[in-house]
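Worked example (supplementary).
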Amino acid sequence: MKRWNGWGDESVDMHLAPTAKALLAELVGEGEPQQDVSLEATIARVPTSRLPAHPLVDRDPEVRLRHAAGQSFPDWVHVRSGSLARFPDGVALPTTADEVRSLLRYADEVGARVIPYGGGTSVVGHLTTPAGEAPVLTIATTRLNTLTHFDETNRLASFGAGVTGPDLEAALRARGFTLGHYPQSFEYSTLGGWVAARSSGQQSLGFGRIEDMFAGGTLHTPAGDLVTPPLPASAAGPDLRQMVLGSEGRMGILSEATVRVRALPDSERFHAVFFPDWAHGEQAVRAISQEGFPLSMMRLSNALETRTNLALAGKERLIKGLQQYLELRGVGEEGCMLILGFTGSRELVKLSRRKALSICKSYRGVHMYRMLGNAWRKNRFRTPYVRNGLWTMGFGVDTLETCVSWSRVGQAMHDIEHALRTALEPEGERTHVFTHLSHFYSTGSSIYTTYLFRLAPTGEETLRRWHKLKSTASEAIVKHGGTISHQHGVGEDHRPYLVHEKTPLGIEALKANCRFFDPNGMMNPGKLV
Amino acid sequence: MKRWNGWGDESVDMHLAPTAKALLAELVGEGEPQQDVSLEATIARVPTSRLPAHPLVDRDPEVRLRHAAGQSFPDWVHVRSGSLARFPDGVALPTTADEVRSLLRYADEVGARVIPYGGGTSVVGHLTTPAGEAPVLTIATTRLNTLTHFDETNRLASFGAGVTGPDLEAALRARGFTLGHYPQSFEYSTLGGWVAARSSGQQSLGFGRIEDMFAGGTLHTPAGDLVTPPLPASAAGPDLRQMVLGSEGRMGILSEATVRVRALPDSERFHAVFFPDWAHGEQAVRAISQEGFPLSMMRLSNALETRTNLALAGKERLIKGLQQYLELRGVGEEGCMLILGFTGSRELVKLSRRKALSICKSYRGVHMYRMLGNAWRKNRFRTPYVRNGLWTMGFGVDTLETCVSWSRVGQAMHDIEHALRTALEPEGERTHVFTHLSHFYSTGSSIYTTYLFRLAPTGEETLRRWHKLKSTASEAIVKHGGTISHQHGVGEDHRPYLVHEKTPLGIEALKANCRFFDPNGMMNPGKLV
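After joint prediction of all chains, the assembly is encoded as:
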């Protein structure tokens, strides 16, 4: 069963290597093991529902609790420490578009606010129950989860918006096709959630972002259904799909989406290359991104991420051997690991691999062949599980991400890391910070930073630490003209920083658009704008 | 000098082959040579300006006439026959963003309507002076036409929005870069116009549509400046660039735009292949589009376009030899010509060419090597000039285009052609109609149809014929769920059909968005929505 207060399935644990505990203590100090509140105690705190009965609305306290939060750091603190203050008054799991429509009418009639819920994996506070007198209805797309239409000729597949990554890929692969969208939340996140939060998958370099895949769908809004047809392209005015993409439940709920699919590739290969330092690695990935031959992914870890990952992998003897070999080849402490993925026809994979590895070599990259690439592939969706174990040991871990032009990458990474590393210094706490680049464009790159720090004795205090870290890093991001989110969306946590990208006039335009579709302001208030 | 009543520069004539006249007579009947009104007579008809004086506004009748129409068929009829009824009351050619802002303020103060003007190449009525009491100010971006910033590291270039295709490419090529955007109007159309009308160039298969190239810019709206930053990607809410793209002057005027540029390719090759019939050709281009290796263009002509182009080329002996050879290889009367373009590194061009030609072969395609491909390249921007000569000979020619899913391509093409071919039958007039596919996606293709018919003795009657042709073909397009425009925009001519793609709710949303940026409705009224 899905964990009620952590990531993933209860039966899956990602155990850290025995040496990891010592390493963490060395990095940020001993962790204080946490005492989490129990499910039962939390259920007991769920107040009586303010919603009148409706045949589709479940007012059971446990169901409401299980839909009350996402996976943001504040969500974790509230759920684990027992400070979760607000719960939706009811949860509906519609099975048809008609049921979605009738739920929106019901919500309007009873003056409720509506939170659209996909896989519950938001890391930026999309699911927070708004404060106030109005009752809150969560509409989960969980049961809108089947393939409704498959069209091989036109390479289109329509799904209920609540389909998860594995179910979507299974349905396509059975037919010889794939979408190729693999966010780290793949196991639980949904197609509707990807669209609503402008998600980007680990292989966006080859398959594109969700914007490129989402061909059209049906968004149920208080003002009516907005249906966007799956046209290959159009010059007929502004693209309404682009209003739906990133709308974060503020305009309505997507019940169905059509995506552009591809034939399963003949071949897929992941390779690892080590660079002697960051500068060489960054120049190599920029050159590859601008060269114009197809890859499906790259991930360049900075030196600290490279060392941390190798240290936490646990295979001490193997890693030691690897490091000795790299040392001989000129890659030492400052070494940075790059994973490269090639996906497509055998010939194209061969050509791209040869070209990419040759560019790496010209930047002093040492090719380590496929072992570490395969290890990355194997663990690509498991990293979030590590968070569970770390928390229990007394460590909080969070990530943040942006996207900037190439010339800003190095300095922005430095400033974001510096902000995080020093934020808690005044109170005598250390933060372990490392970064990778994992989504690439000819004009720039995403920056994905992980930070780890000690949990405080109380949830309140932990949250204060996190706010300090998050706000100082967010300020570093906007200072560099970076987007406040490259792949996670805005939600509550990024909302104060959105104006830097959109400008005040742009924010007002987005608000006006929300008002058009939702004149009474019932849809997911407090998120996005 | 630019023609005031036709396409292109006065010094350039595209002469039709001597045999062409006979062929046209055979196809649709003898043309009635037209007597066009003179420039002087038309200038004399320009009424006194209703605009008060402003240092940036030119109220000279000839200048106003020269900005009074675009290149749509109705525009041609009105300009050539002397029935142009409305002229802007003044034309401004600002040289700075500040001047644009001050012109918008002036227009607001004097209650004027504003028409943004780029290269004057709109073929759908973007430039029509609105009827009514309010004076009309045309703001042309002509003098906002320089490269303002070039950033090699980040592959970004910023230009004044009025830069034309050749000036833009010249500035980039001097630095070893290219944009790769080549609409047929390339010679005159502008970057701002491409963005405002969601343009697509002949090599969109390799370089993408303008949506992919436009990184950001400054749109001056009555509500203030909307500045979109040139981020590589963002998940922070709906993408405001996508509101600007396709806004057709209804929200504001773009003064500057930043585009994503690429290094000049090492290699570029154009090849021709002939298929024995349409079905084989269509299957081949679909297979190539869905295969996933890079090409920069394809253009598949149907049998009638193939025969028409070969007949009009004039090189009788050469063409006869070609046809005899094709006959021997199994390609006869129903033969369809495909031009394929490959652009990029030598190795990638080589691989893609081999793969594409091998797919063509499997669909019975006969490879004719590069001669016809090179001929296409040479004449790629010259076709619009043919319109001048045809008109003088008494023939009207127009094109229309859509984009549909693959499974609709054949039937949609058939129905569009049938609609055009039979529309004037009741009045004893014939229409010569042919089609090509020229923009390809994994999920479908554009359809580009040319139709030629006899001009009537009066402009009014010619316009009636055209309306009949245009409306019957547009109905065939929307019946197939096609977009009313794949690359030309909406303007006045496509406006009645937009609702089929956008839905009534979508149209109202777009109107609400225009109202937000332009509360008094001064920006290009009567266009788009």
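Two points are worth noting when inspecting this output. Chain B touches chain A through 91 residues (CB under 8 Å). Chain B has three domains: 39-264, 267-379, 383-493.
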